[in-house]
Amino acid sequence: MSTKVQPEINTITYDRERIEDKVGSIYDAIVIMGKRAEQINAEIRSELHEKLEEFSVQNATLEEVFENREQIEISRHYEKMAKPTSIAIAEWMNDEIYFRRTDERN
């Protein structure tokens, strides 16, 4: 998954009013960002599994398991990536998340 948004790696404090501006409720904003984070997580997981499948062998010997440095490097790369929640928050703050309300109850 190539993301245009560069999320924060460290913990930062966001302006609550800016987050809830788009939907009027902090809770709705959190639900929307949470759903987007789930989508991002699914994309990342799928991409990781595709890359790791290239290295899977039906009958791997012990030596093959220890020699597979490329697989370890791929795993480390994904571990260092920003978390899906951070990416979703960055997308929300940059107005890059599209959402629609399917049920308007008052």
TrEMBL record:
GO terms of molecular function: DNA binding; DNA-directed RNA polymerase activity
Pfam families per the UniProt record, alphabetical: RNA_pol_Rpb6
Entry keyword set: DNA-directed RNA polymerase, Transcription
UniProt GO cellular component terms: DNA-directed RNA polymerase complex
InterPro entries with a match to the protein in the record: Pol_omega/Rpo6/RPB6
Top-rank taxon: Bacteria
Keyword Transcription attached: yes
Biological process, per Gene Ontology: DNA-templated transcription
Name listed for the protein in its UniProt record: DNA-directed RNA polymerase, subunit K/omega
